[in-house]
Every structure is written in C-alpha cells, then in structure tokens.
Write a structure and sequence with these properties.
The complex is a heterodimer of chains A (367) and B (314). Chain A has 13 helices and 4 strands. Chain A is mainly α. Chain B has 314 residues and is of the alpha/beta class. Classes of the chains: A mainly alpha (367), B alpha/beta (314).
C-alpha cells in the first residue's frame, strides 16, 4: 500500500438513528427555541401584541361616530318680525337658536359662537349673515330657511321620507382594523425573521450551528413554524378586539380570511429572509427593514385610503404586498368578498413569495 | 491491496493555503494527526491557527491544499462528518434567553447518536447551573457549556479553538481536566492555543505555527530538548548597564543569548558550571545584577529561539 494514495475511506453504513420522542426532534427543538426567545423578550411581546391593540383602542376613541351636533344660530331681538322668526325656528332639529341683541349678535357671529345670524326685516323679509366658506354655516342657513318658510306657510309640492344610515362598515374604525391587521402581519413577519437570523449571524451562532449536522432547511422552517403559532394569537387578538369590542363587521368567510393571512405571512416572511440574507449586524438589519417597511406604511392604505395618491403612483402602490393584503382583507371583512373577488391581490402576494424566497435562499450566507 | 486497511488518520492536511486579500493567513501548511492523540497548534495571535482549524472543521474553504478528516473529504461527506465531529469555536455567543439544559437539548437534537443531556451536564460540572439562563453564567461556565455542546454528539474528533483564552486560572484548569477526560477515552483532539503551558499540559504533539506555516513539530519534550539547553538564566543589570551578546555567548556552557527590554535570557547546558562562569564574566566587566532567575526551558523558549519573538507579542 502506498502512502500517496488519498486516504479516502469508503462511505460507512451509518447505524440507524436512535429512536426519539417528538420533543427530541430537531425541528421541534428549533421551533421551541424560537418561541422561548420570543416569550422571554417582553419588549417583543408588547410590540407584537400590546401595541396594535393600544393603537386600535386609541383610534376607536378618536374617530368614534358622534350624533350630528346641533349648530348654534342667532336671531336679532328688538326688531320687527323677531318674535315670529324665533317661533318658526324653535325646535328645528339641528339648530340651537339664541336670541341676541344687535351688538352681541354681531360679536357672536365674528367670534364663531354662532354660524348664522338671522336679521328679521319686518314680517315678510329676513337677512342671513354668515361666512360662505364654513360648510356648517351654509347647512345651517338652509335648515333655517326651510323652517322660516314653513313657519310662514310654505307647503312642499314633493312628499319626501328619509332613512338614516349609521350602519357599521362605513366608519373609520371599520376601515382601520383590516389595515392594522395587515400592518401587524407585515411588521411581525419581517421583523421576527430578519432580527432572529441577523442576531444569530452577528453572534456567530449561525456559524456554530452549521458546524453541527443540523438541517439548514429545518432551521429556516423553524422560523416559519413559530411565526405561524404567534400569527394565530396576533390575528385573534386584533380581529377579536375589532369584531367583538368595536363592532367591525366580518362579512366574508373565515376560510378566505385564513388564505389571505397565511399567504401574506409567507410573503412577508420571505421579504424578511431577503432582508436577513447577508446582513451582518442587527443595526444594519433594522435600517434595511425600515427602508422596506416605511413606504408601505405610507402608501398601502393603513391609516388612510391609498386612492388619495396621484393616478401615476397607483400601479406601483397596487403592486406592494401590504396594499394587496389590506385591500383584500377589507374586501372580505367589509364587503363579504370571496376568493373570486380578491384573486388579483392574492396573485400579487404569491408573486412576492415566489420571487423573494428563492432569491433569499440564493443570497443567504450562513457565516 | 491488503485485505485490511490501516485505520485512516484522524486528520491529514497537505499544502494548505488561504489568502484574505493581500494577507496570506495560511501559507503551505501540512499536518497529520493520528487517532487518539491530542494535537496542539501553538502560535501567536495572527499566526493562522484559527483559519487552519476552521478549514479542518469544514467552515472555511481553502484556496489550495487537501484536507482529509477521519479519512473523508468535506466536499463529499459533509453531513456524515458533522455527525462524528465536536466543534467549539472562538467567540460563539449562545442564545442568552435559553437555559443550559435547553441549549444542550437543542444541540443534542441535531445528532443521530447523541449522549444524554444529563451525562454531558455532569461531565462539564454544570449540574447546579442547568436551569440558569446563559447570561447568568460566568466566562468559565459559558466556555464549558460550549465544550458540552461540542461533546453532546459523542464525537470521535474534538476541535477546540483557543478554549481557555480570557479565563481565570481555576476555570482554565477545569477545562483542561475536561479535555484530559475526553483524551482518556481514546479519542482525538485538535486544539489551538497561544499559551505554552496549555500546549505542554494537554498536547501529545505540538506544531508551532508562525506566519501560516509549521515551523517546528514534535512532542513538547522533543521540542524543548531540541534547544539543547537544560536551563534558562534570565537577569537584568543595575545602573542601566549593558553587556554584548557576543560576550555572553562566549561563556562556557552557554548555548544562546538574547535581550528583550533590558532582560537578558541565556540558555545554558550545565547550569552548575555555566552560572558561576556567567556571573564571573559580568563581575570582571564591572557590572552589577539587579535581578536574576533561572527556569527550565519551555515551549515559549522554543518559540523565541525559532522566531526571535515572544509568543505573547503576536
């Protein structure tokens, strides 16, 4: 036997792995570690669960629907026709009528204490003084005009009836809750993966793990699995608050909601993985993630409708994954849309997933 | 071919080269580690020890050269090799949020034939700390946990990169005991260190590495004996006095002499002849001693005589 031959041994038949319980399996262990790291970080728990609920509660209070407020108007006293005008206006819904001396009436109008000043000009004439730029003043003038004309004996040739709408589904909070759900899906998915991976890389833990026989696919999969567990809690917390406490409707099917939420979570996780693919420090990952997330907070219709942006930007906005998530969640929750109606949004999310995930794996550095 | 092949070497490295930009970290390095031995790579910081061991661990690609670990190659048998190796890196920070036991359960789950967590915890004397979070551990305890994570897969070959750097003396001794216990089971260790006492204590054979090459190889005793010196005499002179090294080397029984920051180090053979002769020479030159000590030569002296630099200077 010569010593120059490469001392390569034939592949030895390795004995079968020792039997193990489910808890001893590496995928279970990796997922458990992810979950422990999350639960043991109180800040992370707050930003994922507490903050969205506080935000939703605050906005629900700020934008609660109030009953229409009565508008104050003034009638000048001590002039002919004043008594009659006040009698006609008294009890008119939507108006609060103050009887004012000519001096105090002018002052009240200038300071905005009243929206319209009615100055009777004898039995058959009145003058309105108001600021045409104030919408409530224009409205109050029309209401006062109607009351005065009716009081003077006018009859209406057309009979009208009304039904007032204060139905859930058209309030600001109804618009906001699906957007909040989308924003939270995005933030927690991108962050948990980008932070977890980059933190492990910067501490050389990623390198240490690759020095073991650990399956790299299982390592990445463990992020997805722990994400799914926390996702269930996040969704239940936000939807529970929205539907049970704030009365936001959930008109579409839960199954369609589930499809959107899962697809969005996968797409955002893939974006998180892409952010983490080569980034070496947590600070750099933080900046990079914010760069990716920030435009979507602005453009994707979380706090206000994305239709407020110019026509030119619309195709770009529609292609953002958070726009697709928010639009489809709103359509299902508020309009009861089915899969058939939200497929364009699902296609956008699927496209982000199938582009970002392979790209992230291709660029990924374990060391 | 003979019907029974001899068992492959635990590690064999030939002509290893690794460059980072203009810097050549490893420059044509060869190593052969036999099964069951503890092999030490001794050298100053920046000598290429970590790059070398990480290439052997399959974590860094060499630019040139061949590596056989347990007779196998990284590009063909990575997964199978990882099952049989235990690796402790420099500077790994395990997750602070996990306990000792949880960390070991995680690492254990990666191996097909692991030891039990209780066994390994007992082995590294962390039983009392098994429920503690990692951020509550001392430096020595963290280091022992690192080694425990390397041992939980029941490896045949253990790689330790600077295992006791930055530890207090007691923690160092605990870690040495751990390595000696592993050696006692007949398995192989490759360790890097810049502490000559660590190499002398643990290593069966030592390769002294400098500038990415092996500059000396042998057992610690062989390397020290190669100096031909029985003792090292170190002295300083009072009143900033100086003596030429030629004068010292001319003294009977002196093998070598050098001076570093005012301290003269003279390697001598028969100290009972050489020391009086040395002192006589100084006295005749009118020089007074401010300090004098003698010690048996160490691997440090070997490194100094090979490179003219001290290990700790880097």
């Amino acid at each position: 036997m010569t010593t120059t031959a490469a001392p390569t041994a034939p592949p030895a038949a390795s004995p079968p792995p020792a039997p193990r319980t489910w808890r001893e399996r590496s995928l279970v262990q990796l997922t458990l570690v992810r979950m422990r790291e999350f639960w043991r970080e109180p800040e992370a728990v707050f930003w994922t669960f507490g903050f969205p609920l506080v935000l939703a509660g605050g906005l629900a209070i700020a934008f609660r629907n109030k009953p229409p407020e009565a508008v104050p108007i003034g009638v000048v006293t001590g002039v002919p026709g004043s008594e009659q005008a006040r009698a006609s206006l008294r009890g008119t819904p939507g108006l609060v009528v103050d009887a004012l001396s000519p001096d105090s009436a002018e002052r009240a109008l200038r300071t905005g204490a009243i929206a319209v000043l009615v100055v009777p000009q004898g039995d058959r004439a009145v003058e309105y003084r108001y600021d045409r730029d104030r919408a409530e003043a224009r409205t109050a003038r029309l209401v006062a005009e109607e009351a005065l004309q009716r009081g003077a004996g006018r009859t209406n040739p057309v009979a009208t009836t009304e039904r007032q709408l204060t139905e859930p589904g058209s309030r600001y909070i109804d618009f906001f809750i699906p957007g909040l759900l989308g924003m939270n899906l995005m933030g927690s998915s991108v962050w948990s993966i980008a932070f977890g991976v980059v933190n492990a890389r910067s501490k050389k833990l990623l390198k240490r793990l690759t020095a073991t026989p650990m399956s790299r696919a299982e390592y990445l999969l463990s992020f997805m699995l722990s994400r799914m567990v926390f996702l269930a809690f996040e969704v239940l917390a936000i939807l529970g608050l929205g539907t049970l406490v704030l009365g936001v409707p959930l008109r579409g099917s839960l199954a369609v909601m589930g499809v959107i939420i899962l697809l969005a979570a996968f797409a955002f996780s893939a974006i998180g993985l892409l952010v983490a693919a080569r980034t070496r420090t947590v600070e750099a990952a933080s900046g990079f993630a914010n760069l990716v997330l920030f435009p979507m907070w602005i453009f994707s219709g979380v706090f206000f409708a994305s239709t407020r942006f110019p026509e030119l930007l619309r195709p770009f906005i529609a292609a953002l994954p958070l726009t697709a998530t928010n639009d489809s969640l709103r359509a299902v929750m508020l309009q009861g849309a089915g899969l058939g109606a939200v497929w364009p949004q699902l296609a956008v999310l699927a496209a982000w997933l199938v582009i970002c995930f392979p790209l992230a794996l291709m660029l990924f550095r374990w060391r | 071919m003979p019907p029974v092949a001899s068992p492959p070497r635990a590690l064999e490295v030939r002509g290893l080269v690794k460059r980072y930009g203009d810097v050549t970290a490893v420059n044509g390095l060869d190593l052969a580690v036999e099964p069951g031995e503890c092999f030490g790579l001794l050298g100053p910081n920046g000598a290429g020890k970590t790059t070398t061991i990480e290439i052997c661990e399959g974590l860094t690609e060499p630019d040139a050269g061949e590596v056989f670990v347990l007779g196998r190659r990284w590009d063909r048998d990575e997964r199978a090799l990882r099952e049989r190796l235990g690796i402790a890196l420099q500077e790994t920070q395990l997750s602070d949020k996990l306990t000792v036991r949880e960390t070991l359960e995680l690492f254990r789950s990666f191996y097909a034939h692991p030891r039990t967590v209780d066994d390994v915890i007992a082995l590294v004397s962390l039983a009392e700390k098994q429920g503690a979070r990692i951020n509550e551990l001392s430096g020595g305890q963290k280091q022992r946990l690192d080694v425990a994570c390397a041992l939980v897969g029941d490896p045949e070959l253990l790689f330790l990169d600077e295992p006791t750097t930055g530890l207090d003396p007691q923690s160092r001794r605990q870690l040495w005991d751990l390595v000696e216990q592993f050696k006692a089971t007949g398995r192989t260790v490759l360790l890097t260190t810049h502490y000559m006492d660590e190499a002398e204590r643990l290593a069966d054979r030592v390769a002294i590495v400098d500038h990415g090459r092996v500059i000396a190889l042998g057992t610690p005793q062989e390397l020290i004996a190669s100096l031909g010196a029985e003792y090292v005499v170190a002295f300083s002179l009072a009143h900033e006095g100086t003596v030429s090294l030629e004068t010292l080397r001319a003294v009977d029984g002196v093998r070598a002499a050098r001076v570093d920051a005012g301290t003269y180090e003279v390697q001598v053979t028969a100290i009972h002849h050489a020391l009086p002769a040395l002192l006589g020479t100084l006295e005749r030159s009118g020089l007074a001693l401010s300090q004098l000590s003698t010690h048996s030569p160490t691997l440090e002296d070997v490194f100094v005589s090979l490179t003219g630099r001290a290990l700790r200077d880097g």
